[in-house]
Amino acid sequence: xxxxxxxxxxxxxxxxxxxxxxxxxxxxxxxxxxxxxxxxxxxxxxxxxxxxxxxxxxxxxxxxxxxxxxxxxxxxxxxxxxxxxxxxxxxxxxxxxxxxxxxxxxxxxxxxxxxxxxxxxxxxxxxxxxxxxxxxxxxxxxxxxxxxxxxxxxx
Length: 155
Prior knowledge:
Layout: E1 7-10, H1 14-26, E2 32-35, H2 38-44, E3 51-56, H3 64-74, E4 78-84, H4 87-96, E5 102-105, H5 110-134, H6 136-146
Parallel strand pairs: 1-2, 1-3, 3-4, 4-5
């Protein structure tokens, strides 16, 4: 079974970050880190393959959308859930980062976020089993499909 992914929360509102951190811990996740800016995340995070970002869009400095685009362009193997209190900002994220797991309007239910994360992890576990059991040719095909032939991973 694969190791638990790191969950990174990037939100400039400490009450939101703390609430999301408590939610993830209560759901049994243990590798959780919170950052109050994209810059802090990029400087301090140990970004592992398969990490999940819970990413506020309206951040001071580098925006959540810009961070999502940077991660996609650099090919980091992460997936993101974009969050915002502003519907128009979520619309921008949908346009600029269509590979995201989800786009949640604040306030949102904790069960909604946990459901998204759990479904993603279940999907990753099943996809990983198929790749392990199918051999190197299927592995190459899965990689080509996952990157849409562009060499970039999900954001």
